[in-house]
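Per reviewer request, we include the raw input and output of the structure prediction for the construct analysed in the revised manuscript.
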Amino acid sequence: AAEAVLPLATALDDIPALAVSEKDADAIRHGMCVTRSAAKQGTVLVTCGETPVAIADAEGEIVRPLRVFNM
């Protein structure tokens, strides 16, 4: 049964990733929006290093967390 459990990143593999700094990741973890000048548009998987932080909506330069992961 344990081999049937896949990593979170595998399930979210089809969502474009947006890498952020530790400072931005901390803000997103607390539900705050961050500004990214080169943000991808639409739904993105926010990551810090290899760690998924949140699913967010990127519109213009604003990245707004939709669902934050507690990892």
